[in-house]
Write a structure and sequence with these properties.
disordered N terminus, elongated, 8 helices, alpha+beta, six-stranded mixed sheet
């Protein structure tokens, strides 16, 4: 394999030389002054050779043969290679660059903008990793789950537990409290092969003849009433039938949603008590005239993929 190596490194790439731990499947470009065997020739048309670290953590190099690389930083490997080359060159000048990072995958799944497998490039905290994947989606929940291979040690959090197989350490992290600096110590360093799962938050929905339809994210132990949900939707529009609103609630065992009449106009005037909402409830405000929208129509209106707005409190 040949690559065009970028030897002019950024400050971040320079920092990785002392932090990134090399491992299997990483690919390296190696330049040794006065030894063209490493760099694939000389001249403007020459291309750099990429040396792949094999599954045993070794790399096979010209002149020196097989060298153990896994577990070393780039700087440590450079120093080791300089020592090996001293029998061929009096003062070896060696430069190593990582051209492909492959040995430290992590998986970020769920409600982030770019879920999938990503490579750790140096030491990264949870917040740094979430930034790399584009951040949390608006509908993301605040409780994030981290799963770690036990050979990388137990997750350093009070909530950490070993799974029944004994192969993984699992912990929940409240990302909202980290962001708000309530629990900054939970912004832990992420290790290779960690799985970060970001679930969808529990929501309630406000649809119909309101000024701004959408979903409201319920945080930890947070409750919302019909009147609070209506306030989040900026209130009733001029055609709304406030005393004909209803909450559509799915029963615990599943099945067709049940209807709960909500006299919003009377609640706003203090004549009736406010009605608490539960996760996944739909507060529907009909028009004062026109055809009534059935439960199935409401379900379709807020189904996954409609891009319903998230109403912020």
């Amino acid at each position: 394999l040949v690559v065009t190596a970028a030897w002019g490194q950024t400050a971040e790439e320079q920092a990785r030389r002392t932090t990134y731990i090399l491992g299997p499947d990483d690919q390296l470009a190696i330049r040794v002054l006065d030894l063209e065997e490493f760099s694939g020739g000389s001249g403007p048309s020459s291309k750099e050779v990429a040396y792949r670290i094999d599954l045993r953590g070794n790399v096979n190099l010209p002149l020196v043969g097989r060298m153990a690389v896994s577990g070393k930083t780039v700087e440590q490997f450079e120093a080791a290679l300089v020592e090996r080359l001293k029998e061929y060159v009096k003062r070896p000048s060696v430069t190593v660059a990582v051209v492909e990072y492959k040995s430290q995958p992590i998986s970020v799944i769920g409600q982030v903008f770019t879920p999938g497998v990503h490579q750790l490039q140096g030491r990264k905290t949870l917040l740094e990793v979430l930034s790399i994947v584009g951040g949390l989606r608006p509908e993301a929940g605040s409780q994030i789950k981290i799963t770690r291979k036990i050979e990388y040690g137990a997750i350093p959090l009070p909530s950490a537990k070993t799974d029944p197989t004994g192969q993984f350490s699992v912990a929940d992290v409240n990302i909202k409290k980290i962001i708000n600096a309530q629990n900054p110590q939970e912004n832990i360093q992420i290790e290779p092969f960690d799985v970060i799962s970001v679930p969808k938050a529990e929501l309630v929905y406000v649809v119909g003849n309101v000024k701004r339809s959408g979903g409201i994210v319920l945080g930890d132990r947070e409750k919302v009433t019909a009147l609070q949900a209506l306030a989040m939707a900026d209130g009733l529009d001029k055609e709304a039938a406030g005393n004909k609103a209803r909450i559509l609630r799915r029963p615990p065992g599943g099945g067709e949603r049940q209807e709960i009449l909500v006299l919003l106009s009377d609640i706003m005037k203090g004549r009736k008590s406010d009605v608490p909402m539960e996760p996944d409830d739909i507060l529907y405000v009909p028009s004062s005239f026109g055809k009534r929208l059935g439960n199935k129509g409401l379900e379709a209106a807020i189904s996954v993929g409609t891009g319903i707005a998230i109403l912020r409190r």
